[in-house]
Structures are given as C-alpha cells and as structure tokens.
UniProtKB/TrEMBL annotation:
<feature type="signal peptide">
    <location>
        <begin position="1"/>
        <end position="17"/>
    </location>
</feature>
<protein>
    <submittedName>
        <fullName>Family with sequence similarity 180 member A</fullName>
    </submittedName>
</protein>
<dbReference type="InterPro" id="IPR029170">
    <property type="entry name" value="FAM180"/>
</dbReference>
<keyword id="KW-0732">Signal</keyword>
<dbReference type="Pfam" id="PF15173">
    <property type="entry name" value="FAM180"/>
</dbReference>
Length: 173
C-alpha cells in the first residue's frame, strides 16, 4: 500500500512540474489573451520580433499620433499607417494596453509583485502604457495631472526595476 501512495505522489509531482508557469500566474495584459468574439483581432499580438520591427515601432512613436475623444490611438502618417505592422500597433494600443487610471494602477500593482523579468511582449506593452500615461499627463490639469503623473511614475519604476533585474546589476532606488 505504501508503494502505491509513493507512486501517486511522484506522479502528481511530475504532473505539477510539467504544467507551464504561465498558467499559474496572473496575466499582466488579459485583453491580449482574450479578444472579443466579434473581432478579427489577433490573439496576443507582439510588435517586436526583430530589430527592424523595433525600429519601426520607434518610427510609429516618433510619428504624430492621434488620440480621439474615445481614446482611440491612430498614426496620422498615412504611409506608416498603411504598413502591416501598423495594424498590430493599432491593435495593441487600442485593445490591449490599459487606458484608464484604475486599470493602470492594477497593472502597476501586478508589475510590483511580478516575479522575475518581464516577457518581451509584457515589457513592450508596459512601455506603450508608459508612453500613453505620459501623453495623458501632459494634457491633464490640476488633480488629474497629479493622478496621471503618479501612474506615470509607477510604470517608470516598474520598467526600471525590470531592466535592473534583467541586467543583473544592483542599483539602489
């Protein structure tokens, strides 16, 4: 009887070890993993898979962006906007990154308790959320400016902490 229990425990341990860790932890950007049924948006879109795509993302960010009253982000440059990667940029900016203070605070809290370094796509999305928060901070006035600035600061600290962790160096805060 004892050997059966031992075998069962060993089997359970092996089964638990084979489950990917991504199932056991919360997803930082849940909208990327569950697109709306009615849309044709890609599941978990990623913008940077090569150096050329990193440079293209940089061009998108340097180009003039338009943010509509309903918070829809678009690239004003028609030539850049017509590129295939611009569609992924549009999807990430409009369907994945958080745009409201409670959602950004939730993301910041999740980032603060996130073990290890961020995956490439999570880092990318956090950086885009940081850029969006910077834009909203610049446009805000009074108390709203303070709220957006605090969100901007917490996202910056999370990215800085991740960069320090990934480089393996120890820098005091």
């Amino acid at each position: 009887m004892c050997w059966k229990t031992l075998l069962l425990l060993l089997l359970c341990h092996n089964a638990q070890a084979s489950v990917p860790h991504r199932w056991g932890r919360a997803v930082l950007f849940p909208a990327a993993h569950r697109p709306k049924r009615s849309s044709s948006l890609p599941l978990n879109p990623v913008l940077q898979r090569s150096l050329e795509e990193v440079e293209l993302l940089y061009e998108f960010l340097l180009a003039e962006l338009a943010i509509s009253p309903d918070l829809e982000i678009s690239i004003k440059d028609e030539e850049l906007a017509s590129l295939r990667k611009a569609s992924d940029f549009h999807t990430v900016c409009n369907a994945v990154i958080p745009k409201h203070i409670p959602d950004i605070r939730r993301l910041s809290a999740s980032l603060a308790s996130h073990p290890g370094t961020l995956k490439k796509e999570d880092f990318e999305r956090t950086a885009l959320t940081l850029a969006y928060a910077a834009y909203r901070t610049a446009l805000s006035r009074g108390h709203q400016k303070d709220v957006w600035a605090q969100s901007l600061l917490s996202l910056f600290q999370a990215l800085r902490h991740d960069l320090i962790r990934s480089s393996g160096s120890r820098v005091s805060p």
